[in-house]
Amino acid sequence: MSSFKTAELCPKQKTEIVSEYWDNYRQLNVRKETGAANWVEYHPEQEDVLLFTCGSRVSIVDSNMEPTKTFSRFKEDVYSARWRSDGSLITCGGQQGKLHVLHPQHGELRRIKAHKQAIRSCGFTKDNHRIISGSDDNEVKIWDIATGECVQTFRSHSDHVRSVSPSSTNSQHFVSSSYDHTIKLWDCRHPDTEVLTMQHNTPVECVLFANELCISAGGNSVKIWDLLAGGRLLKELRDHHKTPTCVKFSSGRSYMLTTGLDKRILIYDWNGFEYAHSFKTSAPALSVAVSKGDKRFSVGLEDGLITTFEKKEKLEKWREPKEEIEEDWKPKNMSKADKHLRHFEHSKALDFVLKKNQGGMKVDQVISVLQELIRRDVLHAAIASRSEKSSLEHLLKFVLYNIGVQRYTAPLIEVANVILDIELQTEEVPQPEVVDLLNRLRRAVKSEIEMCDKIAQMRGALEIIMNCNSA
């Protein structure tokens, strides 16, 4: 009934609140590039500036996905273009093992022949004076930006190094991950041996340094490691159906976002590592980035699409202050059934709508009253205490004629069960008309069950035919 609001059974869980938060994001812009969008990253200070690598191009675009600067003179595919923390420099790796240092306005500043094979990942250290590079030649190296010289080399990995992640709090620490199934924590002051080694048990595509924690993505799982506890596994998340490719944080590190080859972006509440929301993409997702303040996030896809989502702020409508309600206040335009319900006269409310439905034109009103009685848990009392015996026949006829309508089936089955309970408990001999209606109801229900069985058989046969045709 319109005058009675359904009470909320339980408060919303935290994951539901987080999901509603991410539901506010809507697709804003899409840009198509040549080659896979293997990396996207927002400017550390400007929330509208996005950096990405596609094929042999590094591009900077504005909020409308229009390019403001494009670096296209590379003779090789480039990967993992990353901003320095002050936004004044960019670094990226190349397919032929070259490490590039770029200025956002003036172009390429330095090109270093750094590795023998492709550099899949690179990044600036906390002090902004050095660059860490990881390569398919199984090595990790640290480079001095000013001189272009290699400062240190780490050779502990036995397969391709796919990702490196510098610490955001200490310029001497970083982590690396490899196809040799390991994640290693390094101290630049001791390059001969790693500080910790963690076994992911599958080739690792991406690693992220998160203060005292480390996150690795590979196989079909994302694992969270506690570095202070000696590399102990804290949590394993297996919500991706295919290989996860990238892990990023929101700007305040309240949420963790992961992308995967299963064409999904998954979002986790970082406080508890709980899955909270997901977005679908049109192609396998390779990378994701969140802008400062979480206003936007962008995802790079395997087919060259870069899609940006923007948060839509909900504007609260101005409302006039509510006046105090007097004790003798009465709602206007209430129906007679509403008045009976307001005074807890449940049987009278049910009798009224049944009499009003004699022509079969007020079915929704009867259903509404029945649902309200079920919600109040007074349906049994309302039917058992009715004054007119003939009204039971009206109720049975209503159930018989409408139980086959799908949207009415659930409440009417409960009504039928209550009527049967009442008739079984009474010591009086039921009236012949009531017995006849109950038998008709039994036959109608049996017919519906047989029809459902036939539909299920037909559906199974159609699925077999369709599977054979597709094969």
UniProtKB/TrEMBL annotation:
Name where the WD repeats lie.
Answer: 112-153, 154-187
Where is the U3 small nucleolar RNA-associated protein 15 C-terminal domain positioned along the sequence? 328-465
**Where does the protein end up?**
Nucleus, Nucleolus
Q: What is this protein called?
A: U3 small nucleolar RNA-associated protein 15 homolog
- Recorded GO CC terms: nucleolus
Q: Which domain of life is it from?
A: Eukaryota
This chain's source organism reads: Dimorphilus gyrociliatus
* Pfam families per the UniProt record, alphabetical: UTP15_C (PF09384), WD40 (PF00400)
Q: What keywords are annotated for this sequence in UniProt?
A: Nucleus, Repeat, rRNA processing, WD repeat
Tagged with keyword Glycosyltransferase: no
InterPro entries, per this entry?
Answer: U3_snoRNA-assocProt_15_C, WD40/YVTN_repeat-like_dom_sf, WD40_PAC1, WD40_repeat_CS, WD40_repeat_dom_sf, WD40_rpt
Q: Name one GO biological process term.
A: positive regulation of transcription by RNA polymerase I
**Main function:** Ribosome biogenesis factor. Involved in nucleolar processing of pre-18S ribosomal RNA. Required for optimal pre-ribosomal RNA transcription by RNA polymerase I. Part of the small subunit (SSU) processome, first precursor of the small eukaryotic ribosomal subunit. During the assembly of the SSU processome in the nucleolus, many ribosome biogenesis factors, an RNA chaperone and ribosomal proteins associate with the nascent pre-rRNA and work in concert to generate RNA folding, modifications, rearrangements and cleavage as well as targeted degradation of pre-ribosomal RNA by the RNA exosome.
Q: Which PROSITE patterns match?
A: WD_REPEATS_1 (PS00678), WD_REPEATS_2 (PS50082), WD_REPEATS_REGION (PS50294)
